[in-house]
Amino acid sequence: MTEGTPQTWYAAWIVFFVVSYLLGSVPFGRLIAQRVARIDITRRGSGNIGATNVARELGVKWGIVTLLLDVLKGFAPALAFKVLFPGQDVGLSIVGVCALLGHQFTPFLRFRGGKGVATALGVYLAVSPLSCLGALVVFVLVVSVWDFISLGSMVGAATMPLFLAFAGEPWAIVLASAVMAGFICLKHKDNIGRLLAGNERKWRKRD
Questions:
Q1: What are the boundaries of each domain within the chain?
Q2: Torsion of CA 173, 177, 178, 181, to 10 degrees
C-alpha cells in the first residue's frame, strides 16, 4: 500500500494492531473442547487452551485442528500487513507481538490465555519461513531427546532471534522475536518450576 499520507498509513497500522490482537485472542482450544466434548478445557489437564492440552484431553486430531487455527491467528495478520505495507518492519513486528499478546491475554478468558507458541509460529511463518524451519528443527530435537513439549517450545522460541539474525532480518524483527520469546518463557513459568522439580509431564513416556 503506497497511496495516502503517512497519517493514513499510521491509522491503518493501528487498525491492524487492534485486529491482530482481537484475532489472536480467539480461544480456539476452548471453543473446540466445548463443541466437541462439552468440556471446559481450562479445567482439564494442564488447564491450557493450546494444542498440547487439547490433544491430551480430546485426542491428537483435535489437537492438530487447534494447532492449525492458533497458527493461523498469527500468520494471517502478519502476512496481510507484510503484503499491504512491504518493508515496514516496525509495524510488522508490532502486529506479530499483538497477535501473541491476544492469545496469551485474551479478554474472552478474563485476560488469561495460552502459552502462544503456535501463534508465534504463525507470525514467523509469514515473516521468515526459513528461520522458522530452523527453530522447528530445534524444537523437534529437544522434544525427541527429553520428551518435554514445554522445554522444546521454550528453546525453540529462544533460538528464533538467532535464526532471524543469521537470516539477515531487520533489527525490529529480531528484537520483536526476542520480546515474544520472553513472553513465551514467562507463560511457561509453571512448567519451568516443574522441570526443575523433576515432575513435569512428558509427552509420550509415562512414569
A1: 6-197
A2: 180
Mean of the per-residue pLDDT values of the chain: 92
Instruction: Annotate 95-147 with DSSP letters as a single string.
Output: HHHHHHHHHHT-GGGTT-----HHHHHHHHHHH-HHHHHHHHHHHHHHHHHH-
CB 96 within 8 A of CB 180: yes
pTM of this prediction?
A: 0.92
* Cα first-last separation, the chain: 55
The confidence score (pLDDT) of residue 207 equals 41
| Secondary structure of residue 1 in the 3-state scheme | coil
Instruction: Answer yes or no: are the C-beta atoms of 134 and 177 closer than 8 Å.
Output: no
Return the DSSP state at 188.
T
Residue 1 has pLDDT above 60, yes or no: no
14: enclosing H helix or E strand:
helix 6-24
Cell numbers found for residue 41:
478445557
Average of per-residue pLDDT across 34-61: 91
Grid cell locating 54? 487439547
Could you give the CA distance from residue 90 to residue 39 in angstroms, rounded to a whole number?
40
Per-residue pLDDT reduced to its tens digit, 70-96:
999 999 999 999 999 999 999 999 999
For 204, counting Cβ atoms within 10 Å of its Cβ (0-12 exposed, 13-18 middle, 19+ buried), the class is: exposed
